[in-house]
Design brief:
two-stranded antiparallel ribbon; 21 helices; 504 residues; disordered N terminus; single chain; 6 strands
């Protein structure tokens, strides 16, 4: 293990850490969970203060961790303004959505920064995992709010289509969009900005191989319900009369298939969450020393290390206050965003673009800023961890969690994604895996990943809403006339019935 933990820290003088070095060295060799439970504090996480100091709190919050975060903090007035407009002008949904969307950026940024400060008080691997978890809290809140607000047909005003309360297509798009945003946009920008400062950046295979392998397993789990549905949707039958024959009533109806898909999704979600637990255990115990050494070495190569060490830190109390403020604003603003989704869709923004692009961009803002800053500072392994980690958590935990929450609430949330989107995710994982294979990267690879993401964004803008066309719905009906069975497209059947009615 590296012995670099005796490095000078800006906080050492405040606490006299000479007697603390033994405990710190112990943390280097013990496993993550015991260290976490003992609450050991890393040298670089010390603030040199105790309690809550408003002036210091505001100063630390504004300066954050990098210059980009400082500029993002200038957007804070939009957060309270969105709350005021929500009650003062409730009949202006697009204005409320726009203000809440912008206000979410500094709120998520504060949540990410407070998570960073909390993580710095933990052992390296534990801190990185905790920081990633805090960055994903916004996403979890968003998914839960969406499923709670979802309305089934008959519960809402008219139909249960994408424009009238059916938020499941948006949740599904947001799950896959979050993975794509991390893998293509965030990782691409990390490679790009890191390549501008250093011609070639090399990363450790322990992080890239483990992350890419887990993503492939997660993609396989997410793909199964969609593949199952696509394989069997043409075999369903329903009871309906017309054109002089009977469309047979059989046991395997579209409703039966939909119930089976929901059950498969629920069981798959439980299994994926177990896989996420294995991933945490893998990081916490068996590979703790490997990841710790990689991250520790990477941080000592940080080009801005001395400047980072000189920054003021939150105290434990201030960290708690920052987390509480950011979580409160994030939750309120996300609720206001979800309330206005129907109005945004009615204004012409497609469901798939909203879920696949817009929502993941704002929910992952803090994580993206952190990762890009680390890549620019030359800490590419940590940046890679921040890109792959949230993607793994979304696929193995956040997405399955919303299925289980829907299960508890009695809402049929499933993992039957649009084939268009699931293919994008699988291809995205394969492209990223190919770039990670050689263990190094440059700005060109980053630019290519961003270009792929832009192409996906363009395609999603033109992708029709679920009530217009869908690849995960029943496309045809199996009809029977005597002993013969024929599959007929729904649209064609509708046209034929209209012709019969016109002739009558």
């Amino acid at each position: 293990m590296p012995t670099s933990n005796s490095h000078p820290s800006a906080d050492n003088n405040a606490h006299g850490h000479g007697s603390h070095s033994t405990n710190h060295e112990t943390n280097e060799t013990t496993t993550l969970l015991p260290s976490f439970l003992r609450g050991a504090i890393e040298h670089e996480g010390e603030s040199g203060r105790h309690g809550f100091h408003p002036r210091h709190f505001i100063s630390v919050t504004y300066k954050s961790s990098n210059i980009v975060s400082q500029y993002v903090n200038l957007l804070w007035p939009f957060a309270p303004l969105a709350i005021i407009i929500r009650y003062a002008l409730p009949h202006h949904p697009l204005l409320i959505f726009g203000l809440a969307y912008i206000g979410m950026i500094p709120s998520a940024n504060l949540l990410g920064f407070a998570g960073q400060e909390f993580a710095k008080k933990m052992p390296k691997v534990a801190g990185t995992l905790i920081e990633t978890t805090f960055g994903s809290l916004v996403e979890i809140i968003l998914f839960v709010v969406l499923i709670v607000k979802h309305r089934e047909p008959g519960e809402g005003e008219e139909d249960g289509n994408g424009d009238e309360g059916n938020l499941i297509p948006i949740i599904q798009a947001a799950i896959l969009g979050s993975i794509l945003t991390n893998l293509l946009l965030c990782l691409g920008l990390c490679f790009f900005v890191g390549g501008l400062r250093k011609t070639t950046q090399k990363f450790h295979s322990a992080i890239s191989e483990t992350g890419n392998g887990l993503l492939l397993v997660a993609a396989f789990g997410l793909l199964i319900p969609s593949a199952f549905y696509s394989a069997l949707k043409g075999e369903t039958t329903v009871a309906k009369s017309g054109l002089g024959f009977l469309i047979t009533e059989a046991k395997f109806t579209p409703e039966t298939l939909q119930r089976d898909i929901v059950k498969i999704s629920q069981v798959t979600s439980v299994v994926l969450i177990i896989a996420f637990g294995c991933y945490l255990l893998f990081n916490a115990k068996s590979q703790h020393s490997v990841f710790h050494e990689v991250i520790e070495t990477d941080e000592h190569g940080d080009l801005d290390r001395e400047e980072d060490q000189a920054r003021m830190r939150y105290t434990g109390t201030e960290t708690t206050v920052a987390l509480a403020i950011s979580l409160t604003f994030s939750t309120l603003l996300l609720i206001y965003l979800v309330e206005q989704i129907e109005a945004v869709v009615h204004s012409g923004v497609p469901d798939q673009f909203l879920g696949l692009i817009l929502l993941p961009l704002v929910e992952k803002a803090a994580e993206h800023l952190t990762a890009i800053d680390e890549a620019y500072d030359g800490v590419i392994n940590v940046a890679l961890f921040h890109c792959l980690g949230p993607s793994i958590q979304t696929a193995l935990f956040n997405g399955p969690l919303v299925v289980i929450v829907g299960w508890i609430l009695g809402k049929p949330m499933d993992l039957n994604f649009e084939i268009f989107m699931i293919v994008l995710v699988v291809l995205g994982i394969l492209v990223v895996g190919n770039f990670l294979r050689d263990g190094e990267t440059n700005w060109l690879e980053g630019a290519l990943l961003v270009i792929v993401y832009v192409i996906i964004a363009i395609a999603s803008w033109y992708y029709p809403n679920p009530d217009v066309a869908t690849s995960n719905g029943i496309e045809g009906l199996v009809i029977s006339a005597g002993p013969k069975h024929v599959t007929i497209d729904r649209a064609l059947l509708k046209d034929l019935l209209m012709m019969v009615n016109a002739d009558a």
